[in-house]
Write a structure and sequence with these properties.
By secondary structure, this protein is an alpha/beta fold. It folds into 2 domains: 17-136 and 320-347, Quinone Oxidoreductase, Chain A, domain 1; 150-289, Rossmann fold, CATH 3.40.50. Helix content is 30%, strand content 26%. The chain is built from 11 helices and 15 strands. It has helices at 3-11, 17-20, 65-72, 142-164, 182-193, 208-214, 246-254, 278-282, 297-310, 316-319, 328-336; strands at residues 24-33, 36-45, 54-62, 88-96, 106-110, 125-128, 134-135, 173-176, 198-202, 218-221, 237-242, 256-264, 286-289, 320-324, 343-347. Strands 3, 4, 5, 6, 7, 14 and 15 form a 7-stranded mixed β-sheet that branches. A 6-stranded parallel β-sheet has the order 10-9-8-11-12-13, sandwiched between helices. A two-stranded antiparallel sheet has the order 1-2. Helix 4 (142-164) crosses helix 9.
Length: 351
């Protein structure tokens, strides 16, 4: 064939269905228009991906409480439409113009507003700001990293906050609320592995065997904690990890020992905090706020380094279970209703 003719044919090539296999991927897309608010599994063209200097071929994501709110529309999580939810992802760099990443690098991401203002991980591809990524620690497979996910990374930030304020295993008991959820499950596993005596508080006392298996020394019913209590209670807790908020957080603070520390990282029970200043000015209790979304990179890297060192990976099987991308939408309302235990890993290539 004449070389000139061949070049012309290449230049005028019309894309076929075979070509589209390389640029179309599956993902959950949330839309809001005159027809209402809805989340559906769709074929998405790569040209629709948002701006970013790194494109990741995603292998696994997760289903977090925030993702449940986004998918169901029960909370004002999504700020732009359409939106791919998923605050977590793990995968391999496909293309990059970022100085720190090259094609083939294994990476993960937690937070930074993905799934809220920027397309997230519940799809087979993501285009992101490379500054948001961290290298996937060699200790973890992508599936294991997502079994930990934002929940486990947040739990590690809570543990680091307790340590930073001087709470050691010898200081006394650590209480973990929302214990059967993702953050609570990993927090119990971490704290027990580090030698702390952990008391689990849960609204699902039927999960007691599960919580004891993670390392909880005692399991308490959430009900007494979820009602108005006294400004100060009997001193018990040297520290706490709270994901519930509301009356639960207020009662935990009221029963925290002198100079104890409460790491607050969630609002599953509401945003209000019906407490008094008594624990803080009479007992010197510290209420440490934990934000995993905009946490500085150096602290993220340290949290993942510590997870690789301090988390017993043999417990991940008990903490997590895996679903396919197509199952995530139906699972979201169950997660919000407290009917899902531990962590949900989403294999985005299993639809």
């Amino acid at each position: 064939m004449n070389r000139t003719v061949a070049c012309v044919r290449m230049a005028t090539h019309v894309p076929t269905d075979m070509d589209k296999e390389y640029v179309v991927f599956k993902g959950i897309l949330i839309e809001k228009d005159d027809a209402g608010y809805r989340a559906s599994l769709q074929h998405i063209d790569e040209a629709q991906l948002p701006e970013g200097d790194v494109t990741v071929r995603v292998s696994h994501s997760t289903l977090n409480y925030k993702d449940g709110l986004a998918i169901t529309g029960k909370g004002p999580v999504v700020r732009k439409f359409p939106m791919v939810p998923g605050v977590d992802l793990a995968g391999v760099v496909e293309t990059s113009s970022h100085a720190d990443y090259r094609p083939g690098d294994r990476v993960l991401l937690n937070g930074w507003g993905v799934g809220e203002t920027h397309w997230g991980g519940l799809a087979q591809k993501a285009r992101l700001n490379g500054d948001w990524l961290v290298p996937l620690p060699a200790a973890f497979s992508p599936q294991q990293a997502m079994a930990i996910g934002t929940a486990g990374y947040t739990a590690m930030l809570c543990v680091m906050a307790l340590e930073r304020h001087g709470v050691t295993p010898s200081a006394g008991e650590i209480v973990v609320t929302g214990a059967a959820g993702g953050v609570g499950s990993v927090a119990i596993a971490l704290l027990s592995h580090l030698g702390y005596r952990v008391v689990a508080v849960t609204g699902r006392t039927g999960d007691a065997d599960y919580l004891h298996g993670l390392g909880a020394a005692e399991v308490l019913d959430r009900a007494p904690f979820a009602v108005p209590g006294k400004p100060l209670g009997k001193e018990r807790w040297a520290g706490a990890v709270d994901v519930v908020g509301g009356h639960v957080l207020a009662n935990i603070c009221a029963a925290t020992r002198y100079r104890g520390v409460v790491a607050a990282c969630g609002l599953a029970g509401g945003m209000d905090f019906p407490a008094t200043v008594a624990p803080f000015i009479l007992r010197g209790v510290t209420l440490a706020g934990i934000d995993s979304v905009m946490c500085p990179r150096a602290e993220r890297l340290e949290a993942w380094r510590r997870l690789a060192m301090d988390l017993d990976l043999s417990r991940l099987g008990a903490i997590s279970h895996e679903v396919g991308l197509g199952e995530a939408i139906a699972l979201a309302p169950k997660l919000l209703a407290g009917q899902v235990r531990g962590r949900v890993v989403v294999d985005v290539n299993r639809v």
